[in-house]
Design a protein that fits this description.
Order of helices and strands: HEHEHEEHEHEEHEH
Low-confidence stretches: 1-7
CATH class of the largest domain: Alpha Beta
Mean pLDDT: 85
CATH topology of the largest domain: Rossmann fold
Number of helices: 7
Helix content: 25-40%
Number of domains: 2
Number of strands: 8
CATH architecture of the largest domain: 3-Layer(aba) Sandwich
Distance between the termini: 42 Å
CATH superfamily of the largest domain: P-loop containing nucleotide triphosphate hydrolases
Strand order of the largest sheet: 6-7-5-8
Strand content: 15-25%
Structural class: alpha+beta
Length: 190
């Protein structure tokens, strides 16, 4: 179990008092205690709080191994970026009430939040693209100095990409940003 023993873990601290442990070491100890008895369901509250990036990676690798063994894992956290790519299903609570349940993908579709496409390229090509995009409902584009950001509703994504295809030689870079778990949370609050 790399996040419990080993580098940065609890190895070699057996004789130290717990009150001398750092926050990360106390988190590791709590995780080790939770694994005693090989539970089939594991409840974790803010489990990555106090862990350094390497320990967070090791912690989630251990959770993946437990999940592969059939352990059901329930995590509560305010650190939404930690969870976004690591959960099968989630429930979003606002003011103590569940507002949405599903996978990140399903919630993206349910809330129908716009996605954004960031582009870098030839200014003339970007201007031409802006003219093509005027015919697609709900799409907007902002440009400045060879960079552009397109915001579009999910159903228009393929039409926007089709409009980009003929201009691809004038593009230097493209990044599609799907709404994050944080975007979904704030989308539910509005």
């Amino acid at each position: 179990m790399p996040c419990i023993a080993g580098n940065g873990g609890l190895g070699g601290v057996g004789k130290r008092a717990v009150h001398e442990f750092s926050k990360g070491m106390r988190q590791r100890l709590g995780f080790a205690q939770a694994l005693l008895g090989q539970p089939s369901v594991l409840f974790l509250d803010e489990p990555s709080n106090g862990l350094d990036p390497g320990a967070i990676r090791d912690f989630y690798a251990q959770l993946n191994a437990l999940r592969a063994q059939g352990v059901t894992i329930v995590i509560t956290s305010h650190i939404l970026a930690d969870l976004q790519e690591r959960v099968d299903r989630l429930a979003i609570m606002v003011s103590g009430k569940i507002q949405a349940i599903g996978s990140v993908h399903a919630l993206r579709e349910q809330l129908d939040l716009p996605l954004s496409i960031a582009l870098r390229g030839d200014s003339m090509q970007l201007t031409e693209l802006q003219n093509h995009l005027k015919n697609i409902a709900g799409v907007s584009m902002d440009m400045a100095a060879g960079e552009a950001t397109i915001r579009c509703p999910r159903p228009a994504k393929m039409a926007v990409l089709a409009a980009l295809a003929p201009l691809s030689q004038g593009l230097v870079d493209l990044h599609i940003h799907e709404p994050s778990l944080e975007d979904l949370f704030f989308g539910l609050r509005s």
